[in-house]
Each structure stands twice: as structure tokens, then as C-alpha cells.
Write a structure and sequence with these properties.
By secondary structure, this protein is an alpha/beta fold. About 45% of the residues lie in helices and about 20% in strands. The longest helix is centred in the middle third of the chain and has 22 residues.
């Protein structure tokens, strides 16, 4: 293999730049040319690519976001869109493609490979940490750090004013960020999509513990929680305690931005390196994961079809410590 492409797709996550850097430098070391495509599959269909050398990826390992930019493409979901992308790859002599993104990005890579014979490898770049086959995804740890830092600051003002704060973190379908943030920040409660929200249980806890001591509190709510999100949950609790002062803070996209921490820089570097070596060895339609601190290769079909599950131990831990 003499020429590969690389792109970032879907939602951005801290560490994507570190992964691109590892792809380019590993490929260069193995005499493989690299073309980087802007705006994910959109750039691939528009042939909006640029040659990347080891010098082009200097001073990006510490930067958040992705310098290749990213997008979600509706056209690439069609056979015609994928045919256009494959034609562009073949015209440049590109034999393999590294896709950094989540399950939607991997679905596109899988179809592209099956329909047009392009070798593809995926690197899991998503803050949600919900991809099957890897202990951690690129950006997850940094997103948790960002959320914990924000909650620590919110607790300062909550304690100063004796307030109950509901803090909403990202996680439309998965509660990994909420759960770890709740444990690390010492939250009084954590509500996640994987478990049914029992407002009566939350209200009962607040009546027996919070109300007696009149202290401040933090409740972490994942955006996909079935209670309706932080605003709806806060409104339901407020109706039970009209004399209390409740506040809502939605952290939103702050969790996607910022410099990747050391863990994510190393994780992304390992995954990008392994993806290039896998393509060179003839592997395809796999995701690079880390299992038990060892590199593992997971078929894209499995990574897409299944979802990582919440640890029952962590659920028990957050309940015991709240």
C-alpha cells in the first residue's frame, strides 16, 4: 500500500488531531503517501483533499477539535454519493482510508468498502464512549475532565447560596460522561438514559437528607435521560419543594472543545499508529480499539451493531456515595 487517505467525521472530539498526526507520521515512516480530506465524507465526495507530510502535522497534538474539520453528510448515505467518493479515491491511487469518528462514520466506511473494495480502518473518535469493542474512545476522558471542572465551579456557588443545581451533560443515548462526572464531582444524584428515572425516589432522598440539613446539592443529568433532561427534572423537583431555590446549567458543547488531556493524546496516537499498520498488513473493515490497555481490532459490523454497556459496579458506586 503506497497511498492512503484520512478524514474526521461526525461530532468532533478532543484528540482527533493527535490521531491524524499519528496516521501521517506512521505512514511517512513506512513510505506511504497520505491525503487528508476536509469536512469528512463531504470533502471525500468533493475531492477536497490535500497531501499531508510529517511537517504538516507539527504542533497539532495539543489542539482541540480537528484541523481537517468534520461534517455529517446526507449524500454519502446514498449509493450514488459513495460511488462518487470511491471514484475520487481511485483517481488518486488511494488504496486505503482511515476514518476517525463514531458509529455513523463507521457505517459509511463499511458500505464504502463493501461496495467499492476500498480498504478501511476506523479509529473511535467520540466523547460518548459508547462504541462496542474498546474500553475508551478518543475524547471521552477529556470531556469528563471538562465536565468535572465545571461542576466543581458550580458547587462553589451552590454552597454559597444553599442551592440545588441540576447540571446537564452530553449523552443523548449513553450515560458514561454523566456517571463518571457524578462520581468524580461527588454529585448527590446521577440520571442516565440506561436506567429509568424515578422522580419519586429522587424527591424522597431530597426530603430525608437534603431537606433536613438544608445544604447545597448537585444532580447530574445526561441529556438523553428519560426524565426529559435537566430542565424538566428540575421543574418536577421544584414543584415538590416550592421554597427551595433550584438552578439548571447545561454544559453543552463545552465538553467537546478544549485541549485533549494526556490520556486522550496517547490513546489517539496509539490508535492512529495501529490503523496504518493494519492497512499495511492488509486488514480492512475493522475498528482499532483498546481492551485491557492492549490494541485490539474489532470488525466494524460489531462496533456498529452493538453498544458499550454501563458498568453495574459504577451504578452501585454512585448510588452508595451520593
Amino acid at each position: 500500500m503506497k497511498h492512503i487517505g484520512v478524514l474526521t467525521s461526525g461530532g468532533d472530539s478532543p484528540g482527533m488531531n493527535a490521531c491524524v498526526r499519528a496516521v501521517v507520521r506512521t505512514a511517512t515512516l513506512n513510505d506511504i503517501q497520505v491525503t487528508g480530506f476536509y469536512r469528512g465524507y463531504e470533502g471525500l465526495m468533493e475531492n477536497d483533499g490535500v497531501p499531508l507530510t510529517r511537517y504538516d502535522v507539527r504542533n497539532i497534538i495539543h489542539r482541540g477539535g480537528t484541523f481537517l474539520q468534520t461534517a455529517r453528510s446526507q449524500e454519502f448515505r446514498t449509493p450514488e454519493g459513495r460511488a462518487k467518493a470511491a471514484a475520487n479515491l481511485r483517481a488518486q491511487g488511494i488504496e486505503g482510508l482511515v476514518v476517525i469518528g463514531g458509529d455513523g462514520s463507521f457505517t459509511g466506511a463499511k458500505f464504502l468498502s463493501e461496495e467499492h473494495g476500498i480498504a478501511v480502518m476506523g479509529c473511535p473518535g467520540t466523547i460518548d464512549n459508547d462504541l462496542f469493542g474498546t474500553d475508551y474512545t478518543i475524547g471521552y476522558q477529556t470531556a469528563v475532565d471538562t465536565a468535572v471542572e465545571a461542576v466543581d465551579k458550580i458547587r462553589d456557588t451552590a454552597a454559597s447560596h444553599n442551592r440545588l443545581f441540576f447540571v446537564e451533560v452530553m449523552g443523548r443515548d449513553a450515560g458514561f460522561i454523566a456517571l463518571r462526572t457524578g462520581i468524580a464531582a461527588g454529585a448527590e444524584g446521577v440520571l442516565i438514559p440506561e436506567t429509568p428515572t424515578d422522580i419519586n425516589r429522587l424527591v424522597g432522598y431530597l426530603k430525608t437528607d437534603f431537606q433536613k440539613k438544608r445544604r447545597s446539592g448537585i444532580i447530574i443529568v445526561a441529556e438523553g435521560d428519560d426524565g426529559g433532561g435537566a430542565y424538566d427534572v428540575a421543574q418536577k423537583v421544584q414543584s415538590e419543594f416550592p421554597d427551595w431555590e433550584t438552578k439548571v446549567t447545561v454544559l453543552g458543547h463545552t465538553q467537546r472543545g478544549g485541549k485533549p488531556n494526556a490520556f486522550d493524546r496517547i490513546l489517539a496516537s496509539r490508535m492512529g499508529h495501529a490503523a496504518v499498520l493494519a492497512l499495511r498488513e492488509g486488514r480492512t473493515r475493522e475498528m482499532v480499539g483498546v481492551q485491557g490497555n492492549q490494541i485490539a481490532y474489532v470488525p466494524l459490523e460489531q462496533a456498529i451493531k452493538h453498544h458499550a454497556t454501563i458498568s453495574p459496579y459504577l451504578l452501585e458506586l454512585v448510588d452508595a456515595l451520593s
